[in-house]
Write a structure and sequence with these properties.
The protein contains 5 helices and 15 strands. The chain is of the alpha+beta class. Strand 12 and strand 13 form a beta hairpin. The two termini are 36 Å apart. The chain binds zinc ion.
């Protein structure tokens, strides 16, 4: 399996790895700091370099063997050592946005008892759907105030891996539908915003809520009788 460097250090912008396997334009590495996408967070962009060549990262895919990185032009040979460099101008805003989404989840559940039904993000903008009976302007402004208070509270954000059995006994994790995780995964990675939110999550986050910066709820709409959507924007 490919070692997922971004799981333990989301701030890693450059890394070295060894090419384990090559299939066409796809290169499997022994380790990577590139996030392949998932959980509403899009895949990273960046560059790969090796002796005698290099390429933009044009895609990623996952299989039982690990993570494959798609390159343009001639790929490096198996066994080659390779340098990866993330497009940090894209990744760091995505980290801030992802943490902003968790702040929103945490606030909405704590304050209103409402659960998330879906979400999606791009750099500096994200949307989440909640099980909310009604949504209106006053409530939106109230939520906006509450999420900004959590940014200012400078809460630490931590990721760690727990044994599956242990994770399944934590009420916060059960609430966020941990039971949807595929069976057979021995460990569950969890992301915690201290004192606010805890959920099973494979994405990349900032280390402290203050890095998210000021938040605005720029749009809201009804997505049916049960689901209400909030759209949040971050400052550059
Ligand atoms: Zn998440």
């Amino acid at each position: 399996m490919t070692e997922l460097l971004y799981h333990t250090d989301s701030y890693m912008r450059e890394f070295t790895a060894v090419v384990v396997d090559v299939q066409g334009q796809d290169v499997r590495l022994d380790r990577t700091a590139f996030y392949p996408g998932g959980g509403g967070q899009p895949a990273d962009a960046g560059e790969l370099g090796w002796e005698g060549g290099g390429s933009r990262l044009v895609g990623m895919r996952k299989d039982a063997g690990g993570l494959w990185h798609t390159v343009e032009g001639p790929p490096p040979p198996a066994g080659a050592s390779l340098q990866g460099r993330l497009d940090w101008e894209r990744r760091y805003p995505l980290m801030r946005t992802h943490t902003a989404m968790h702040i929103l989840c945490g606030v909405i559940f704590r304050q209103y008892g409402a659960s998330v039904t879906g979400g999606q993000m791009e750099p500096l903008r994200g949307r989440m759907d909640f099980e909310f009976a009604s949504m209106h302007q006053d409530l939106v402004r109230e939520i906006e105030g509450l999420i900004n208070r959590e940014v200012e509270a400078a809460r630490p954000v931590r990721a760690r891996s727990l044994p599956r059995a242990e994770a399944f006994q934590i009420p916060d994790l059960i609430r966020t539908k941990i039971n949807l995780l595929p069976p057979g995964i021995p460990e569950v990675r969890v992301v915690e915003i201290e004192g606010l939110d805890l959920q099973a999550d494979g994405g990349t986050h900032v280390a402290n809520t203050r890095e998210v910066g000021p938040l605005k709820i720029v749009d809201y709409k009804s997505k049916g009788a049960i689901n209400k959507r909030l759209v949040v924007a971050l400052e550059p």
